[in-house]
Amino acid sequence: MDSLLDALQEGRLIELLDNNKEDALQFLAHIIEAIPSLPAGTDVMERVMARERAANSALGKGWACPHTRVPFEEDLMCVVGWSPQGIDYGAPDGIPVSIIVMYLVPENQRNQFLREASMLAKALKSYADMEKLSAAGELNEIRDYLLDLISSTRECVGPDARARMIQLQVRPSVAPIPAYDLANLIVEPVTIVTGPGLKHIVLAQNRHLVEFLDSARGLVEKLATEGVFQNDGWRVLKRGEVTYQGDRILYDCLAIKTADANPKTDR
């Protein structure tokens, strides 16, 4: 399960504070949308929810594996969410979902995804310590649980894979954060109001984000045509829009940035 292992390596194990299914899937989808290599305007949330409406992705035993395919070539992308309370996911066995493993599957990665999904399903049938999931109290315990599951599922771990597992288990608690590490994200809801002859108005709690977007050139144009505006480390994603009288438009957005990209993040 290399992509799941990559998600643990690169900080894409996220605690889900909201136990609503759609909100949890939306949050994880936006984490994937923040990955720099993803083409701008890729609506992961809509794709995931469309597939979820067609077939529930619950695997049983407190796990779910939502995924969607995209018509371009890239690496297989994975993000993992942990819900301490459990999410009413509509699982066939009735068990609330605690672990959501979300995949974005590019055209060239379909076979790799099928292999990984098959190994995950096999792990859930054979892993002897499934009760550790409900006993875990914090994110590091969940990480260790997932590492145990991965290592126990591999019938034969090669030298490279074994070295990666050792690196994960013994790496220092304070380590350099690579540019693609999403463990330290700032995620801010933003409302933007605009209209003919009007300068756009930005409503958000983060003062520095408001100051930045107030003066951002091309913000409204990018949101209207591409659904995303990216500059100075911020990625602003349009989630929806409402048109009012006088052609005034309200954009409901989410702004995402890694915390280390800008030290001025106080509110």
Automatic annotation (TrEMBL):
The lineage of its organism: Bacteria, Pseudomonadati, Thermodesulfobacteriota, Syntrophobacteria, Syntrophobacterales. It comes from Desulforhabdus amnigena. PROSITE patterns: PTS_EIIA_TYPE_2. SUPFAM superfamilies: Phoshotransferase/anion transport protein. Pfam families: PTS_EIIA_2. Residues 3-153 form the PTS EIIA type-2 domain. GO terms for molecular function: protein kinase activator activity. InterPro entries: PTrfase/Anion_transptr, PTS_EIIA_type-2_dom, PTS_SugarTrans_NitroReg. This is PTS transporter subunit IIA. Gene3D superfamilies: Mannitol-specific EII, Chain A.
